[in-house]
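Here is an idea for our session: we take a single protein and study its fold together. Once you have written the record down, we can walk along the chain together.
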Amino acid sequence: MAHHKHGTMGTEAQEKTFAGFVRGVIWVGAFSICALIFMAVFNS
């Protein structure tokens, strides 16, 4: 079995994935808020 030392694993790929996920959540949230404002303003 391979020996693993704590803190030696490369996490660059996971950090990039998480940053992309957070960016996507922000974009979806902003779009949703804009859509709700648009519907509230132009509700007839």
